[in-house]
Amino acid sequence: MNPLVTQEFISRFGEAPAHIVRSPGRVNLIGEHTDYNDGFVLPMAIDRAIWMAIRLRDDRQIKFHSVDFTDPVEFSLNDIQHQKGWGEYVRGVAWALEKAGYQLEGWEGVMLSNIPIGAGLSSSAALEMAVAKAFSIAGNWVLESQKMALIGQQAENEWVGANTGIMDQMIIAAGQVDHALLIDCRNLDTQQIPLPAGTALIIMDTTTRHSHTDSGYNERREQCETAAEHFGVSHLRDVTLQEFNLGADELAGLPRRRARHVISENKRVLEAGIAMSAGNATEMGELMNTSHVSMRDEFEITNEELNIMVALAQSLSGCFGARMTGGGFGGCAIALVKDEAAVAFVENIRSRYEKSTGLKPNIYICEASNGVEVL
Ligand code: ADP
Ligand code: MG
Known about the structure:
- By secondary structure, the protein is of the alpha+beta class.
- Helices cover 42% and strands 22% of the residues.
- The chain has helices spanning 2-13, 87-99, 123-139, 145-160, 167-174, 216-230, 241-247, 253-277, 281-297, 304-315, 342-357, and strands at 19-28, 40-41, 43-56, 61-66, 73-76, 107-113, 179-184, 190-194, 199-205, 319-324, 332-338, 362-366, 373-374.
- It has a six-stranded mixed sheet, sandwiched between helices. The chain has a four-stranded antiparallel sheet with strand order 10-11-9-12. It has a three-stranded antiparallel sheet with strand order 2-7-8, sandwiched between helices.
- Helix 2 (87-99) crosses helix 4 and helix 4 runs antiparallel to helix 5.
- The longest helix has 25 residues, at 253-277.
- The radius of gyration is 21 Å and the shape is globular.
- The relative contact order is 0.17.
- Adenosine-5'-diphosphate binds at residues 66, 68-69, 86, 89, 113, 117-124, 127.
């Protein structure tokens, strides 16, 4: 990708780029719908990324091309206005940085990417973090990873208008090779957790997608709020499983089951951090399996294809565990498998899933990579 993006830059600008930025996608290993409950998540940055080549300008213009889109992004930092298209992510980051008081300077360049768009691997946050890094290079100031993540989230929430948590930006800003990142969504404390040696992480895209009219996400949020109110706390993060078991009787059925997922999931994320730190892939796999059951039966955010994919993965040799990942109602599942079993696993899962569903899945063997970086 590095030579490709350099070549792309040279063919547009007639000279070599001054800087190359790499900004990866991400996948969440465990901890689903825990973020807005002030809980814990455990994502990792993956070896699929946006690559961006730039040079600085001596005015306050931004000119940016993506090989995946025909329309370039062009605007003046003196007059940042809403427009349509992918440039909203670029303008949103510029807007959030300026609002936070950073001195912005112009730059121009090109990007290419092998993060599939809209597959749940967070190409949008990868783009935001790449752009934030470009501005920090152009302005010659340092943007610490937590600050960078918050800027990206603000751009996505307030400028683009997508209601997302902090996880994606945080892992892309702070990821480290061979590690996942345990994030406390309440105070943004982080801990680097090594991946168990001798394992491979496989992302399995069912190719089913949740519909945008789906009210499932907001409904779940409301049910979690109802449950938190019942326990007299601001967020379900503050309820232990023991307290839940003692006090859930008078809570209505749905909020009770939603809460049971969130509370048990938070516990599983912390246990997963311990298991992985000890190199215990078996324990990690079991936690992933239990997590999936909880999302299927208590939180009810899986669809048939996700359930089929996960069951198939769990049935294959060399698989420690599998679960759906992301918001749910479609999208991707992941499996933790023995390194030496990975290639056969991929072939098997591909043919079996297609046979069961008639759909061709996209399967990616992933390695934990660094977060956004200047090369
Ligand atoms: P994802 O799950 O991949 O984050 P989103 O819908 O949140 O999906 O974000 C996808 C959007 O991010 C695209 O519609 C586009 O605006 C922007 N984007 C992602 N990848 C690229 C790219 N390679 N070039 C330009 N814009 C991109
Ligand atoms: Mg996104």
